[in-house]
Amino acid sequence: MAMNPAWPGGVPTVKTGLARACLLLAACWAGGAHGGVSCPQRPIRFAFYEIGQFYSAGRGLDRDVAEELRRRSGCEFEFVVMPRARIWQELEAGSLDMTGSVIETPERSKIYWFFNYIQLRQYAILSIDVPDSIRSMESFIQDAPSSRWAIVRSYSTSRYFDPLVLQLGVQRRLVEVAEEDVLFRMLDQRRVAGIFSTPMVYRQKIRQHGLEDRVKVADWEKDDAPSPRSLVLTKRAFPDSEARAWRQLVDGMNRDDTMLRLINRYMSRDEAAAAVWAGGKR
Fold first, then answer.
1. Of 30, 43, 208, 275, which residue is 20 to 30 A from 53 by alpha carbon distance?
2. pTM, full prediction
């Protein structure tokens, strides 16, 4: 049979034509979806805030996680930096899509998706002026009535500490600031007696502010389970089907030890192994 120059392999049959059409469609779809994720037509806006080794001066675990999500999804990302309180405002307004290192609360879970990727214990970072006889948050509230505490505005600490923080607020002993660095400056200036922090943050900040001999670290957390930190997506931007695909990406990073490798950049191997979200290996 003579070859048709328009079809070097011969005139296509219905079957071969259909097969080629399917391959072409798959190739086109692959340009907008990777790993099951459907990329939006615009860049995904991901917000960071300055918080020790999670993010500082363009580097940190959250930046590493975001870059890995960009690589695995094939989506275009736009990175921005702003205070935590403003991040929540812009997420609610729909001008941001994602952020990282967030603790889930029942209220927030109504409007956001939470995908855990690291679990950390909160520690009390105390001025050396706090008496050694004070060994719990309850004791601090009761036995140091003139002392104040500081937190980052809009930041949830843990299931155990959050209600106690509310008590300090009612007593007007709570100072809320815009960013983590201010907490350590206030400790340095003895304007507050204590703050909360995690090793990912306080090790760097204590060294940066020269506080090695001026503060002490206390384990006052009474919840044995470390608090998970999550990637947050707005339900407005990501419906359920798309959110499931992003969850699979995050879970995949936990299962294949990518998250362990990323965390190990900032913590020892043993610490990193303990910090990887326990549910991520399921």
1. 43
2. 0.76
